From TrEMBL, chain A:
This is Protein-methionine-sulfoxide reductase heme-binding subunit MsrQ. Heterodimer of a catalytic subunit (MsrP) and a heme-binding subunit (MsrQ). Keywords: Cell membrane, Electron transport, Flavoprotein, FMN, Heme, Iron, Membrane, Metal-binding, Transmembrane, Transmembrane helix, Transport. Residues 51-165 form the Ferric oxidoreductase domain. Belongs to the MsrQ family. GO terms for biological process: protein repair. It comes from Pseudomethylobacillus aquaticus. The lineage of its organism: Bacteria, Pseudomonadati, Pseudomonadota, Betaproteobacteria, Nitrosomonadales. It is found in: Cell membrane; Membrane. It comes from the Bacteria. It is a multi-pass membrane protein.
């Protein structure tokens, strides 16, 4: 069997560049649609929905790096995880900014009331707030400085994901088929982790030890 | 297809109309899909003619009318109405229709009729959304008799001077402008007079979220989102939300229908 693909550092830098551009496509699409007056009859709802969806997609991609390694032993994509995580934050930030600005025109009273009274807004807001410290500590200096506490802090990604999916589930009026997709994907991604952790010892022994978990600092 | 003969009315003078394109491309019509851009493409093959409507229940004699009969019951009128969706958006639409009261008088309900029920077509061949069990098909809506007889309530057969496009509920749909949009059953095939309050589709689907009355009321929120403001469709990216008015601004004409009722309970 051929050795699994492992990019050289040059290849990896190209992979990162391509991924960066790909991750910007949803934003480019919104801008293009906006310039062609094609954001539907309710453009604010459309871009809110779109940026929210892409935040969830980026989050699912971020969370799929570890299961990929658990299932296949392919470890190098962990070097893409930070970028994916930051793109999740980027789209969540756009999503939240649209809510703050175009949807409510910084009417803080109305926003506060909305967050307090409507559970789907509350869980979405909480999910966003929890992701701020993760984005803020995503640089290499913070990884070095926080050491093991960094890992603990970044476990927050799990509540962020669960609340994010719940946010989508609760906002849908009736047809939950779309949020259901995210529920199932998230369940699978978390399920692989649980299985890997609690799998029978015989299986565990037959596999190579897990390659390094932390992204390389620097 | 133009409607040749209808009279203008003073309703909605001074309102800015929502563009035709928006009125006909942003629709909640689950029989053609749950996305608001679904009904327009999904209803292209829908055939609103020939069409019959059966009149049943507490009437002196049940009968079946063709859509052409209904066009002739009363002179058609243009009514420019605000439409407020329970989801928090709104439009201003120049409907063409006849007062529901004329249709009801024509149907001759008996003294036992207290409510009127409107049943929509549910044809899986022409309506792809009906193949999915999203709601209990057919779609059922209803009004109390006095609400149905109110002069504001119309059976719409057109908009913007044209016969009703398929995605807007062709060939005829209910329009009750002081209630949330879902009260306006579309593509109606059956009108039934009853002595009991009809169990309507959205009440059945979520009795804690949707009530029989469904009057537009900025002081009673939907359990999951606010009803105090709305977004007027057609304003573009930078138009702020506007305040929702009690009974969608039609309080003068309809508030008396609900005197003594707790609108928080009867939402």
């Amino acid at each position: 069997m051929a050795a699994p693909f492992k990019p050289s550092s040059l290849q990896l830098s190209w992979i990162k560049r391509v991924l960066f551009l790909l991750a910007l496509l949803p934003l480019a699409r919104l801008i293009w649609l906006g310039m062609h007056d094609a954001l539907t009859a309710n453009p604010i709802e459309f871009i809110t929905r779109s940026t929210g969806t892409w935040a969830l997609v980026m989050l699912m991609l971020t969370l799929s790096i570890t299961p990929l390694r658990m299932l296949t032993g392919v470890a190098w994509p962990v070097q893409l995880r930070r970028m994916l995580g930051l793109f999740m934050f980027f789209y969540a930030l756009l999503h939240f900014s649209i809510y703050l600005w175009l949807d409510h025109w910084f009417d803080l009273m109305a926003i506060g009331k909305d967050i307090a009274e409507h559970p789907y807004v509350l869980v979405g807001f909480t999910s966003f707030v929890l992701s701020i410290p993760l984005a803020a500590t995503s640089n290499s200096a913070m990884i070095r400085r926080l050491k093991t506490r960094w890992k603990t802090l970044h476990l927050l990604v799990y509540p962020i994901a669960i609340l994010g999916v719940l946010h989508f589930w609760w906002l849908v009026k009736k047809d939950v088929s779309e949020p259901l997709v995210y529920v199932l994907v998230l369940a699978a991604l978390l399920g692989v982790r649980l299985w890997y952790r609690y799998r029978p010892a015989s299986q565990a022994a037959s596999r190579k030890p897990l390659p390094t978990r932390m992204p390389k600092a620097g | 297809q133009k409607i040749s003969d209808f009279k203008k009315t003073p309703y909605g003078a001074g309102e800015t109309l929502t563009p035709y394109e928006d009125v006909t491309s942003y629709n909640n019509f689950y029989e053609f899909g749950t996305g608001k851009s679904d009904p327009k493409p999904q209803s292209r093959l829908f055939k609103p003619r020939p069409w019959t409507v059966s009149i049943e229940g507490e009437v002196s004699k049940p009968r079946t009318l063709s859509i052409d009969d209904i066009f002739k019951i009363a002179p058609l009128e243009e009514r420019i109405y605000r439409m407020r969706c329970v989801e928090g958006w709104s439009m201003v639409i120049p409907w063409i229709g006849l007062p529901l009261a004329s249709l009801i008088k024509y149907a001759e309900p008996t003294g036992k009729a207290k409510y009127v029920e409107f049943i929509s077509l549910a044809d899986p061949k022409m309506m792809p959304g009906v193949r999915a069990p999203i709601l209990d098909w057919p779609y059922v809506e209803g009004l109390r008799m006095d609400e149905a007889m109110n002069p504001l309530t119309i059976m719409a057969v057109g908009l913007y001077g044209e016969v009703l496009p398929n995605q807007n509920g062709a060939p005829m749909r209910l329009v009750v402008p002081w209630k949330y949009g879902f009260k306006g059953g579309k593509s109606i095939v059956k009108i039934r007079f009853t002595d009991k309050m009809p169990l309507t589709t959205w009440v059945r689907s979520g009795p804690t979220e949707y009530g029989f009355y469904a009057n537009v009321n900025p002081t009673v929120d939907h359990p999951r989102w606010t009803q105090s403001t709305e977004r007027r469709i057609g304003g573009g990216l930078f138009s702020p939300r506007i305040k929702t008015q009690m009974f969608n601004g039609y309080a003068d004409q309809v508030a008396s229908l609900y005197t003594g009722m707790d609108l928080r309970k009867n939402f």
